[in-house]
Amino acid sequence: MMDKEVNIARAIASLDTSLFRYIESQTTDDDKYSLLAVQRAVRQKAEYVYLEIGSHLGGTLQPHLLDPRCTTIYSIDPRPLIVDDERGEKQKYFDNSTERMMRLLSAVAPDQVQKIRTIDKAAPEIDPQTIDPRADLCFIDGEHTNTAAIADFEFCIKVLAPDGAIIFHDSDLVYKGIRQLLARLRKSDTKHFPLKLGGSVFAIAFGGSPLASATYIRSISKSIHYHFLRSAVRLRLNRHKIKRKLKKRSS
Known about the structure:
The protein is of the alpha/beta class.
Protein backbone atom coordinates (compact mmCIF):
# COMPACT_ATOMS: atom_id res chain seq x y z
CA MET A 1 0.00 0.00 0.00
CA MET A 2 2.83 2.36 0.89
CA ASP A 3 4.56 1.77 -2.48
CA LYS A 4 1.31 2.51 -4.27
CA GLU A 5 0.87 5.79 -2.39
CA VAL A 6 4.45 6.78 -3.17
CA ASN A 7 3.92 6.04 -6.87
CA ILE A 8 0.73 8.12 -6.94
CA ALA A 9 2.48 11.01 -5.19
CA ARG A 10 5.34 10.84 -7.70
CA ALA A 11 2.93 10.76 -10.64
CA ILE A 12 1.13 13.87 -9.40
CA ALA A 13 4.41 15.62 -8.63
CA SER A 14 5.65 14.98 -12.18
CA LEU A 15 2.28 15.96 -13.72
CA ASP A 16 1.94 12.48 -15.22
CA THR A 17 -1.19 12.66 -17.40
CA SER A 18 -1.44 8.87 -17.44
CA LEU A 19 -3.42 9.33 -14.22
CA PHE A 20 -6.31 10.17 -16.55
CA ARG A 21 -5.87 7.05 -18.69
CA TYR A 22 -8.54 4.78 -17.24
CA ILE A 23 -11.68 6.79 -18.02
CA GLU A 24 -12.25 9.11 -20.95
CA SER A 25 -12.52 12.81 -20.14
CA GLN A 26 -13.25 15.84 -22.29
CA THR A 27 -9.91 17.44 -21.52
CA THR A 28 -6.88 18.25 -23.65
CA ASP A 29 -3.32 17.42 -22.61
CA ASP A 30 -2.85 21.07 -21.59
CA ASP A 31 -6.00 20.85 -19.46
CA LYS A 32 -4.67 17.71 -17.78
CA TYR A 33 -1.31 19.33 -16.98
CA SER A 34 -3.10 22.31 -15.44
CA LEU A 35 -5.49 20.16 -13.40
CA LEU A 36 -2.60 18.09 -12.05
CA ALA A 37 -0.63 21.25 -11.24
CA VAL A 38 -3.61 22.49 -9.22
CA GLN A 39 -3.91 19.12 -7.47
CA ARG A 40 -0.19 19.12 -6.70
CA ALA A 41 -0.52 22.52 -5.08
CA VAL A 42 -3.63 21.64 -3.05
CA ARG A 43 -2.17 18.36 -1.76
CA GLN A 44 0.46 20.36 0.13
CA LYS A 45 -2.15 19.96 2.83
CA ALA A 46 -2.04 16.64 4.70
CA GLU A 47 -5.65 16.05 3.58
CA TYR A 48 -8.02 17.79 1.20
CA VAL A 49 -11.63 17.63 -0.01
CA TYR A 50 -12.52 17.84 -3.70
CA LEU A 51 -15.86 18.92 -5.16
CA GLU A 52 -16.74 18.67 -8.85
CA ILE A 53 -19.78 19.95 -10.72
CA GLY A 54 -20.37 18.02 -13.93
CA SER A 55 -18.67 14.63 -13.66
CA HIS A 56 -20.29 12.61 -16.49
CA LEU A 57 -18.12 9.45 -16.69
CA GLY A 58 -15.79 10.48 -13.86
CA GLY A 59 -12.77 11.19 -16.06
CA THR A 60 -11.57 14.20 -14.06
CA LEU A 61 -12.31 12.49 -10.75
CA GLN A 62 -9.63 9.85 -11.42
CA PRO A 63 -6.52 11.63 -10.06
CA HIS A 64 -8.33 12.60 -6.86
CA LEU A 65 -9.79 9.13 -6.45
CA LEU A 66 -6.28 7.68 -6.64
CA ASP A 67 -4.78 10.32 -4.33
CA PRO A 68 -4.67 9.11 -0.69
CA ARG A 69 -4.56 12.73 0.52
CA CYS A 70 -8.00 13.34 -0.96
CA THR A 71 -10.33 12.11 1.79
CA THR A 72 -13.71 13.10 0.35
CA ILE A 73 -14.99 13.64 -3.19
CA TYR A 74 -18.32 15.32 -3.98
CA SER A 75 -19.64 14.63 -7.46
CA ILE A 76 -22.52 16.97 -8.30
CA ASP A 77 -24.34 16.29 -11.56
CA PRO A 78 -28.09 16.44 -12.35
CA ARG A 79 -27.34 13.96 -15.17
CA PRO A 80 -28.97 15.70 -18.16
CA LEU A 81 -28.96 13.97 -21.54
CA ILE A 82 -28.76 17.28 -23.46
CA VAL A 83 -26.84 20.35 -22.28
CA ASP A 84 -26.70 23.91 -23.66
CA ASP A 85 -23.50 25.88 -24.08
CA GLU A 86 -22.49 29.40 -25.11
CA ARG A 87 -21.88 28.35 -28.72
CA GLY A 88 -25.61 27.83 -29.11
CA GLU A 89 -25.06 24.11 -29.60
CA LYS A 90 -26.69 21.17 -27.87
CA GLN A 91 -24.22 18.76 -26.26
CA LYS A 92 -25.54 15.20 -25.95
CA TYR A 93 -24.54 12.86 -23.13
CA PHE A 94 -25.79 9.35 -23.73
CA ASP A 95 -26.30 7.01 -20.78
CA ASN A 96 -25.37 9.83 -18.42
CA SER A 97 -25.92 8.11 -15.09
CA THR A 98 -24.31 7.98 -11.69
CA GLU A 99 -24.46 4.19 -11.79
CA ARG A 100 -22.35 4.09 -14.95
CA MET A 101 -19.79 6.53 -13.51
CA MET A 102 -19.46 4.60 -10.26
CA ARG A 103 -19.04 1.35 -12.15
CA LEU A 104 -16.16 2.84 -14.13
CA LEU A 105 -14.52 4.40 -11.06
CA SER A 106 -14.85 1.15 -9.12
CA ALA A 107 -12.71 -0.51 -11.76
CA VAL A 108 -10.04 2.19 -11.33
CA ALA A 109 -9.74 2.06 -7.52
CA PRO A 110 -12.21 -0.31 -5.85
CA ASP A 111 -10.72 0.40 -2.42
CA GLN A 112 -11.26 4.16 -2.74
CA VAL A 113 -14.77 4.63 -4.16
CA GLN A 114 -16.27 4.81 -0.67
CA LYS A 115 -14.95 8.37 -0.41
CA ILE A 116 -17.17 9.54 -3.29
CA ARG A 117 -20.46 11.24 -2.42
CA THR A 118 -22.74 11.68 -5.41
CA ILE A 119 -25.53 14.26 -5.63
CA ASP A 120 -27.82 14.07 -8.67
CA LYS A 121 -29.01 17.67 -8.53
CA ALA A 122 -28.06 21.03 -9.99
CA ALA A 123 -25.82 22.94 -7.59
CA PRO A 124 -28.33 25.76 -6.82
CA GLU A 125 -30.83 23.10 -5.65
CA ILE A 126 -28.47 21.74 -2.99
CA ASP A 127 -28.47 22.90 0.62
CA PRO A 128 -24.89 24.10 1.24
CA GLN A 129 -25.11 22.69 4.78
CA THR A 130 -25.05 19.17 3.33
CA ILE A 131 -21.47 19.72 2.12
CA ASP A 132 -19.60 18.70 5.23
CA PRO A 133 -16.63 18.62 5.31
CA ARG A 134 -16.22 21.72 3.17
CA ALA A 135 -14.31 21.61 -0.11
CA ASP A 136 -10.70 22.74 -0.46
CA LEU A 137 -10.96 22.61 -4.25
CA CYS A 138 -14.03 23.05 -6.46
CA PHE A 139 -14.02 22.24 -10.17
CA ILE A 140 -16.83 23.75 -12.28
CA ASP A 141 -17.44 21.75 -15.45
CA GLY A 142 -21.21 21.56 -15.75
CA GLU A 143 -23.39 23.41 -18.25
CA HIS A 144 -21.09 25.73 -20.17
CA THR A 145 -23.27 28.82 -20.14
CA ASN A 146 -22.41 32.05 -18.35
CA THR A 147 -25.58 31.84 -16.28
CA ALA A 148 -24.82 28.30 -15.11
CA ALA A 149 -21.15 29.07 -14.44
CA ILE A 150 -22.13 31.99 -12.21
CA ALA A 151 -24.74 29.91 -10.36
CA ASP A 152 -22.26 27.08 -9.83
CA PHE A 153 -19.63 29.52 -8.54
CA GLU A 154 -22.14 31.06 -6.12
CA PHE A 155 -22.80 27.60 -4.71
CA CYS A 156 -19.11 26.73 -4.51
CA ILE A 157 -18.22 29.90 -2.65
CA LYS A 158 -20.73 28.90 0.05
CA VAL A 159 -19.20 25.47 0.57
CA LEU A 160 -15.53 26.38 0.10
CA ALA A 161 -13.14 25.89 2.97
CA PRO A 162 -10.98 28.84 4.10
CA ASP A 163 -8.01 29.26 1.75
CA GLY A 164 -9.75 27.18 -0.93
CA ALA A 165 -9.81 27.53 -4.70
CA ILE A 166 -12.41 27.32 -7.48
CA ILE A 167 -11.43 26.36 -11.01
CA PHE A 168 -13.34 26.48 -14.28
CA HIS A 169 -13.05 24.24 -17.32
CA ASP A 170 -13.87 25.57 -20.82
CA SER A 171 -13.20 29.08 -19.58
CA ASP A 172 -13.10 30.34 -23.17
CA LEU A 173 -16.85 29.62 -23.37
CA VAL A 174 -17.87 31.17 -20.04
CA TYR A 175 -15.40 34.07 -19.95
CA LYS A 176 -18.23 36.62 -19.59
CA GLY A 177 -19.43 34.88 -16.45
CA ILE A 178 -15.88 34.74 -15.08
CA ARG A 179 -15.43 38.43 -15.83
CA GLN A 180 -18.62 39.26 -13.89
CA LEU A 181 -17.50 37.16 -10.94
CA LEU A 182 -14.07 38.79 -10.81
CA ALA A 183 -15.70 42.22 -10.86
CA ARG A 184 -17.90 41.21 -7.90
CA LEU A 185 -14.91 39.95 -5.95
CA ARG A 186 -13.00 43.16 -6.55
CA LYS A 187 -15.99 45.26 -5.53
CA SER A 188 -16.40 43.31 -2.29
CA ASP A 189 -12.66 43.54 -1.52
CA THR A 190 -12.47 39.77 -1.29
CA LYS A 191 -8.86 38.60 -1.27
CA HIS A 192 -8.46 36.47 -4.37
CA PHE A 193 -5.92 35.52 -7.00
CA PRO A 194 -7.14 34.97 -10.59
CA LEU A 195 -4.92 32.58 -12.56
CA LYS A 196 -5.26 31.66 -16.22
CA LEU A 197 -3.64 28.25 -16.62
CA GLY A 198 -2.87 26.12 -19.66
CA GLY A 199 -5.63 24.77 -21.87
CA SER A 200 -9.05 26.12 -20.97
CA VAL A 201 -8.52 26.12 -17.19
CA PHE A 202 -9.08 29.27 -15.14
CA ALA A 203 -8.53 29.31 -11.37
CA ILE A 204 -9.52 31.67 -8.59
CA ALA A 205 -7.61 31.10 -5.37
CA PHE A 206 -8.77 32.63 -2.09
CA GLY A 207 -6.94 33.78 1.02
CA GLY A 208 -3.85 31.70 1.66
CA SER A 209 -4.67 28.99 -0.87
CA PRO A 210 -1.61 26.93 -1.88
CA LEU A 211 -2.40 27.90 -5.49
CA ALA A 212 -1.58 31.50 -4.73
CA SER A 213 2.00 30.68 -3.73
CA ALA A 214 2.79 27.58 -5.82
CA THR A 215 5.77 28.43 -8.01
CA TYR A 216 4.74 26.17 -10.86
CA ILE A 217 1.18 27.49 -10.89
CA ARG A 218 2.57 31.01 -11.12
CA SER A 219 4.94 30.05 -13.92
CA ILE A 220 2.25 28.51 -16.14
CA SER A 221 -0.34 31.15 -15.32
CA LYS A 222 -0.95 33.94 -17.76
CA SER A 223 -1.15 35.91 -14.53
CA ILE A 224 -2.65 39.07 -16.01
CA HIS A 225 -6.03 37.45 -16.49
CA TYR A 226 -7.57 40.35 -18.39
CA HIS A 227 -5.37 39.46 -21.36
CA PHE A 228 -7.21 36.15 -21.49
CA LEU A 229 -10.58 37.81 -21.11
CA ARG A 230 -9.85 40.24 -23.95
CA SER A 231 -8.57 37.40 -26.14
CA ALA A 232 -11.71 35.41 -25.39
CA VAL A 233 -13.87 38.31 -26.51
CA ARG A 234 -11.96 38.53 -29.80
CA LEU A 235 -12.21 34.76 -30.27
CA ARG A 236 -15.97 34.84 -29.73
CA LEU A 237 -16.41 37.70 -32.20
CA ASN A 238 -14.36 35.81 -34.79
CA ARG A 239 -16.53 32.73 -34.29
CA HIS A 240 -19.67 34.78 -34.90
CA LYS A 241 -18.18 36.29 -38.04
CA ILE A 242 -17.27 32.85 -39.39
CA LYS A 243 -20.78 31.54 -38.70
CA ARG A 244 -22.36 34.51 -40.47
CA LYS A 245 -20.15 33.97 -43.52
CA LEU A 246 -21.01 30.27 -43.64
CA LYS A 247 -24.73 31.06 -43.44
CA LYS A 248 -24.45 33.56 -46.29
CA ARG A 249 -22.62 31.03 -48.47
CA SER A 250 -25.19 28.32 -47.82
CA SER A 251 -28.16 30.61 -48.53
